[in-house]
Amino acid sequence: MNISTQPPKSNPSPDPQRRVNFRTLVVAVLLSLVLGTVGGFVGGLLVSGNFSKWFSSATTASTANVSTVSVKEESQTTDVVKQVQPSVVSIIISKDLSKIYNQSGPYSFFFGPQSSSPSQGLQQVGGGSGFILTADGYIMTNKHVVSDTQAEYSVVTNDGKTYKAKVVATDPVNDLAIVKIEVSGLTPVVFGNSNTLQIGQTVIAIGNALGQYQNTVTKGIVSGLARDVTAGDGSSSETLIDVIQTDAAINPGNSGGPLVNLEGQVIGVNTAVSQEGQLIGFAIPGNQAQQVFESVQKTGKIVRPFLGIRYIQITTEVQTQDKLPVNYGVLIQSGTSQNEPAVVSGSPADKAGLKANDIILEIDGVKLDSSHSLATEIQKNSPGDKVALKVLSGGKEKTVTATLQEYKQ
């Protein structure tokens, strides 16, 4: 069958020139009507002397809309700061330097070679931040802030009062700790749901910046979610899993302070900052902090469930590099040293039959990908809980059950 692209001769198209002339006429008529209406309106305003008033009110209304948005945002920020600041504390680290003179350690680089012994007595050697969990003095901070067993710690509240602090518990697998001061009538924070955070959401960080500027406030956004980073102070390092990235300025001394949303709710614990980039900070999600404190309230210590494997998260890059059959899940493999086996002997993973080069695809039906890490899913459970693991082993899929144990250092 032939299909012609030519129009039928029995139905000629209208004269194009006529169509143009008709449209021009319509446009001209409409334009004259519009101009006439506007001219009459403006002329009336000029005669009545109201033109300047009308123009001024229109301009003011437009400017007012912009100003209202700006003032609302500023007001929201200041309200949040006023709400949260009474719950933020500074943590002071003190030590008798005469007892550690000429010793190497976490404070030696502050002082360097000295020709004479430092004066005796406690001296401040560092500082961090924290926030109040209960009215009777439980406080959340970072583990690295209170990790020195030879140091003494004190807490300075927002009203300038100082209290001696006791380290109650430190997290065996995360950079979190709980300290206690003997006082009543404090203002505790309110936690938000860190699982609902979105990239681009406004957040505010509050803390003891540089260990000397108490309750410093910085503002930014959530720059990334579910980041895995390795943080350290030069003498030790720790891998932080599933943390929040933010461009709100986090400085030394901010460690342990709260990251809050515009509702004044704590959604993170400020923990680390990149020394290589600018405005790249990290915070442990607030939901993890809540779990830690609930554990302390129930058991008097921080209890963590334990599976007993070493692994890497599989990404498209890892799949290509290691020639794996999938681009998600976690690959069980040994650590960098000989005493870091892929599967810990006697662990729940060992008892469930897991071995090196197995790939865990799912846990309790949750696919392990960039949005769902194995560590986060494990921490939703308690020691003694059973978890179902979908595993790819030797090219075949199988499901095994592991009974989680309590993690012990």
TrEMBL record:
Q: Report the residue ranges that make up the PDZ domain in this protein.
A: 313-384
A Gene Ontology BP annotation from the UniProt entry:
proteolysis
Q: Which family does it belong to?
A: Belongs to the peptidase S1C family.
Molecular function (GO) terms for this protein are: serine-type endopeptidase activity
Provide the alphabetized UniProt keywords.
Hydrolase, Membrane, Protease, Transmembrane, Transmembrane helix
Give TM segment ranges: 20-47
Gene3D superfamilies in the record, alphabetically? 2.30.42.10, Trypsin-like serine proteases
Q: The organism sits in which domain of life?
A: Bacteria
Question: Which named protein is this?
Answer: PDZ domain-containing protein
